[in-house]
Design a protein that fits this description.
This protein is mostly beta strands and about 800 residues long. The protein has one helix and 67 strands. A hairpin with a 5-residue loop joins strand 18 and strand 19.
Length: about 800
């Protein structure tokens, strides 16, 4: 193979000499004439959207601007447009080549009517048309039955496979058939025992003749529907009654299953990307239209390496203390194991991670093993070299082998035949692939590396991390902050897993936890979306902690702790999942938050810190201190940990862990705060202490107190100030009391007025039903950060990077904003 490569280089050299000998010279000193400025793009079009709900906000598919070499004017009539998933706007602006454009408008308020929006770029126009659905038809003589989908949400993202759709229906003459995309549903009368839909109908009392006198009967239904992977599916509900009255457009929701790849490599032989979905499915991705083509499936894929010599993918896995290298033939889709290796390790040492990079020229795989000794918090690194040409292997480099810089590698990449690594101690090192010697190339001050990519030259690297994206020029060496992270960055890089140079001007940065593959302009540092698999537009939510609803409408407010990014307040439109940033609330310091509350009278949000309450105006994001930090009068708040807000009396009730038989009561109009004492006789030994959160009931007359230290929930009557014990046990499937502070401990409670229950966050989500005095465990351990009830009886939950809808009946969930 090396002889063939040398021969190819010789042929290229000979061809170059012949071309030079043939002439082509010029006596002119002028350079090539630059191309003329072209601001007229290639034609583009939008897909027609049919059967939309009257009056709904309808968003088009994304189109890519092409064929221009300078900024072109963009304008719109009858709607709004968004550039690269930015905010929607209606005014004129400019747009560059390769920009992604979407438009949106409000659908007609009438049935079977159309609405048209015209987008013009550089003089080229296209229409986006939506058509509303037909008016529900009634076949037969009775009033047509109606149906509503409770789960999943109107627009949501789900995992491919079977999804249990759940809803309600009403009819004056029973239900004879209800289907979701043709799948027969199981229907339950709310006043009768559950039955299976079949030829036998669910009949209400009476007949068609006295239809107007009949009362509507309510039904519940579920249907198990198969959802395809990497697709968008509309789920349509049709329902008919016993008299033949049909409603074929009773309800519809949209479910998306598109996944963003967790790892990517570029297949330059076929000019395509190869990606991994969910650490299992390998797909080919066409960069021009982002269509996915399945190749094969494999287990536990943690990275990808492309070998152009044999047109294959190589990746590593580890099971217990055995490491394996695998091959996927990209032509046949076949797989085989190339290497299986078990290093000699002490009995108390285990492999916790294996990552690899590949040198296709020399057919060398470099596998980094991270080893952890029992009882230790720090892993040690070993780098092994596997020669796939002669099936030999060796330990190439480790901290204990020589006096080179300590090996604490976080990421590696090949630059030609040279191996570079970003160390967790913020050093860029080069590892000699023959001797294993490590050399410090340069420091990476105040930068936490998370991904590396080879540049377009043999002396250029890119490193992405929490603080942004660095361009490394090795010839100097010099690091340049190409794209800095800020609190307003639309596409943050705080959770990225990988990076890849697609072409000389485009760096791809993988952020699968938030459903994104970002593209970064290597000249300007500008970020935009390459692949978006989330729900809704706007900056990604990182670590949503506290939630509150507006009094009216479908707006949810979210306090995002930011994880590795800034603390931010968001407004989320629950109909679309769109996110709008309201304010950065870092307050120039490290904050610990204690709550988020909607203050309708001031059109503001109240944010609980650990030592103060601040107000954030929804109009402009400006902040002011309400109580604490010098505002208001009363005892010191620090450290308050949780609370609830009585909007009618403008009173905050806040928990302070160190108080005994007491909580804080704060008047948000004056900032005055008092310690509200109460009768603690219901507590352990007559004392209620360690209260870390509170929740008001629907009438704001009862206050529920969660005592983390006592592993108990109490009820406080705000008029009499008497207390009673509500709950001290809630057992999970492992036989553990999740309220017990030795297990997880209670850290958040919320009151569900519609369901007459209390939501408890304590390592797991639990729902306590007041009527039955029973406790139901929902979801997996440590899955949820917070949860709130929705009006339709399902729950809104938050975890890292996403807002979700959880159905407590089926315990299925979908993402509604990410």
């Amino acid at each position: 193979m090396k002889q063939l490569l040398l021969t190819g280089k010789f042929c290229l050299l000979l061809l170059s000499m012949l071309l030079i000998a043939c002439g082509g010279g010029s006596d002119s000193d002028s350079g090539p004439t630059p191309p003329p400025v072209n601001t007229q793009p290639n034609t583009f079009s939008f897909n027609v959207q049919a059967d939309v709900e009257p009056g709904a906000t309808v968003t088009s598919n994304s189109i890519t601007v092409s064929g221009i070499n300078a900024a072109a004017t963009i304008s719109i009539q009858g709607g709004e447009y968004s550039i690269d998933n930015g905010d929607f706007a209606s005014g004129s602006s400019t747009v560059n080549n390769a920009a992604q454009i979407r438009v949106r408008h409000q659908a007609s308020a009438e049935y079977a009517s159309s609405q048209t929006t015209t987008l013009t770029i550089g003089g080229v126009s296209a229409n986006f048309v939506s058509t509303t659905r037909n008016q529900p038809s009634a076949v037969g003589t009775g009033t047509p039955p109606q149906a509503t989908v409770l789960f999943p949400w109107s627009q949501s993202k789900a995992t491919a496979g079977t999804l249990t759709v759940r809803g309600t229906a009403t009819s004056r003459n029973g239900i004879s058939d209800l289907r979701v995309n043709g799948v027969a549903a199981t229907v339950h009368s709310r006043s009768a025992a559950a039955q299976r839909v079949s030829a036998q109908s669910f009949h209400a009392q009476g007949s068609n003749e006295d239809d107007e006198e009949q009362e509507e009967e309510e039904f519940e239904w579920t249907a198990d529907v198969e959802i395809e992977s990497n697709s968008a599916t509309e789920l349509k509900v049709s329902v008919s009654d016993a008299d033949g009255a049909e409603n074929n457009d009773a309800a519809s929701v949209r479910v998306d299953t598109l996944e963003a790849p967790t790892f990517l490599v570029y297949d330059n032989l076929n000019e395509r990307l190869i990606g991994v979905l969910g650490s299992k499915e390998i797909v080919a991705i066409d960069p021009s239209n982002l269509s996915y083509q399945p190749i094969t499936t494999a287990d536990f894929i943690s990275e990808l390496n492309f070998d152009p010599v044999y047109n294959r993918i190589i990746y590593s896995t580890h099971h217990e203390n055995t490491v394996s290298l695998h091959e996927v033939d990209l032509v046949l889709g076949s797989q085989k194991s190339l290497v299986t290796y078990t290093p000699e390790l002490a009995p108390d040492v285990k492999i916790i991670m294996a990552r690899s990079v590949f040198d296709p020229i020399n057919q060398l795989a470099f596998v980094l093993l991270k080893l952890l000794e029992d009882g230790s918090f720090y892993a040690t690194d070993r780098l092994y070299q596997f020669n796939l040409a002669d099936d030999t292997s060796r330990l190439l480099s480790a901290s204990y082998l020589d006096d080179s810089p300590r090996m604490t590698i976080s990421h590696m990449t090949m630059l030609g035949t040279r191996l570079y690594a970003a160390a967790s101690n913020r050093q860029l090192i080069e590892i000699n692939t023959e001797t294993g010697e490590r050399t410090t190339v340069m420091g990476l001050p105040d930068f936490s590396p998370m991904a590396m990519a080879a540049g377009s030259r043999d002396d250029q690297l890119f490193i992405a991390g929490f603080q942004g994206i660095l361009k490394i020029e090795l010839a100097f060496p010099l690091s340049i902050m190409l794209s800095r992270e800020t609190s307003t960055t639309l596409y943050p890089t705080s959770q990225i897993r990988g990076a890849l140079l697609l072409d000389e001007e485009t760096l791809l940065v993988l952020d699968p936890d938030f459903g994104n593959v970002l593209q970064v302009d290597t000249r300007t540092g500008e970020r935009s979306a390459f692949i978006r698999s989330g729900i809704g537009a706007g900056r990604s939510i990182m670590m949503p902690r506290y939630l509150t609803f507006a009094d009216e409408g479908d707006t949810l407010y979210v306090l995002d702790n930011g994880s590795n990014a800034a603390d931010v307040l968001f407004a989320v439109d629950l109909t679309s999942g769109d996110r709008t940033m309201i304010a950065d609330i870092n307050q120039d310091r490290v904050n610990y938050h204690s709550g988020l509350f909607f203050h309708a009278k001031n059109n503001a949000l109240l944010v609980g810190l650990d030592d103060a309450i601040i107000s954030v105006a929804l109009s402009d994001g400006s902040t002011s201190v309400v109580s604490g930090m010098g505002a208001g009068h009363g005892p010191e708040l620090w450290p308050i940990t949780g609370g609830d807000f009585d909007a009618e009396s403008e009173t905050l009730y806040m928990a302070k862990h160190s108080l005994t038989n007491a909580i804080f009561k704060i008047d948000v109009t004056t900032g005055q705060r008092i310690v509200l004492g109460f009768d603690g006789s219901a507590g352990i030994a007559g004392v209620i202490e360690g209260v870390n959160d509170v929740a008001l009931d629907a009438e704001n007359q009862q206050l529920y107190l969660s005592s983390q230290s006592q592993s108990t929930i109490y009820r406080l009557d705000l008029e009499t100030l008497e207390t009673e014990m509500v709950l001290d046990r809630c057992m999970n499937n492992y036989g553990q009391n999740i309220l017990n502070v030795d297990e997880s401990g209670i850290y958040k409670i919320n009151y569900d007025a519609a369901g007459q229950r209390l939501l408890i966050l304590s390592g797991q989500l639990a729902s306590y039903d007041f009527a039955t005095q029973s406790c139901q465990i929902l979801g997996q351990r440590h899955e949820y950060i917070n949860a709130m009830p929705l009006e339709n009886g399902t729950f809104l939950t938050v975890g890292q990077g996403a807002l979700k809808q959880l159905d407590p009946v089926t315990q299925e969930q979908v993402i509604i904003s990410k």
